[in-house]
Amino acid sequence: PPASQNNEQGSTLRDLLTTTAGKLRLGSTDAGIAFAPVYSTGTASGKSGRTMPNILDDIIASVVENKIPPNRAPKINVKSEIKDEPKDDRKCIQDDCSKRYSDIQYSWICDKHVLWLRDHKNNNNWKLFKECWKQGRPVLVSGMHKKMNFSLWKAESISLDFGNQQADILNCKDSIISNTNVKEFWDGFEDVSKRQKIKNGETALLKLKDWPSGEDFKAMMPARYLSLILDILKSISIPEGKLNLASHLPGFFVRPDLGPRLCSAYGVAATKDHDIGTTNLHIEVSDVVNILVYVGIAKGNGVLSKSGVLKKFEEEDLDDLLRKRLKDSSELPGALWHIYAGKDADKIREFLQKV
Question: Strands 114-117 and 139-141, how do they pair?
């Protein structure tokens, strides 16, 4: 900026430092700043005296003075903000949505923390989804699998196409990883008699560990990749999607692995301990779209009946809408998730450190 403007606007940090320091050296008691500078009283020798003002405080004060013209009041009224009652964001968005999105079939579940879009075919879902996305809220959409080629995702189909490949298989109960043919995993997906046994004769709860993921998925399973991209993900998270920020970062950035990846694990219905999880608690490095593409119904000794599975779900802390959905004969429960708000990450860390 022109030199004549420097003293008025404090246009750059260099100008501000120069003018403030210069005035301080000349012995000015206020250095032309908005607030009195901070002095320390007393010296090491015990004599009273005045030392150099705290330049950082002076700089901040000068910026405040220069940025808010005298004839204009600041936009933020601190006192009024303190007096205002805190707003319930959940209530605000719910009240607003009921007026603006009356043409969308939706409900609020999980103590009104999660939006449930019940009609996947409604083109107006996008409008309401955006409102929740801005706030970092999870959104559940029913029936997305109906848009996909179901035959591609059956266990026997994947086993037939890729059974000869090697992959790491994790035993979720004892965390032992072994490298074996993928066929062994898929053959036991719906037949308990073909599953591995652990030391005490119990059925192993296995999970395919990151197979396949990222570029491997696209190269290995082109038909399934296109099925996901064309039918489900579209502009939200396809690599070239306009809303996929990571894909538009310059090349020198280290981008997160955006997948897609196939997450496959046995259900707990055939295990003795039904409290085992197949995915550990973790934090995602980016927004994630998860699609339940297939639910295998295990057959064999020790497998819970459908009523037994429902009973296990009933023991969970579910709200009335989710309990009602479980009893719907057209619905097939396939996964139980525990999702926590990102803002609570520190509380969770503190809890984990204690236990």
Answer: parallel
- The dihedral region occupied by 84, where left means phi > 0, alpha psi between -120 and 50, and beta the remainder, is beta
pLDDT class of 302 with cuts at 50, 70, 90: low
Question: What element of type H or E holds 207?
Answer: strand 206-208
Instruction: Look up residue 297 and give its DSSP letter.
Output: -
On whether the CB atoms of residues 167 and 179 are closer than 8 A, the answer is yes
Which position has the higher pLDDT, 128 or 236?
128
Hey, where are the domains in the chain? 93-141, 144-303
Q: Which amino acid is residue 108, in one-letter code?
A: W
The pLDDT assigned to 286 comes to 81
Residue 351 has pLDDT above 90, yes or no: yes
Task: Supply 24's token pair.
Answer: 């301080």
Distance CA 55, CA 24 (A): 9
225, containing H or E segment: helix 222-228
Sign of the torsion angle spanned by Cα atoms 87, 91, 95, 98: positive
Domain 144-303 has CATH 2.30.40.10: no
- Rounded to whole angstroms, the Cα distance separating 62 from 18 reads 12
Identify whether the C-beta of residue 55 lies closer than 8 Å to the C-beta of residue 16.
Answer: no
List the one residue out of 51, 62, 77 whose CA is nearest residue 16: 62
- The predicted model gives 140-156 an average pLDDT of 86
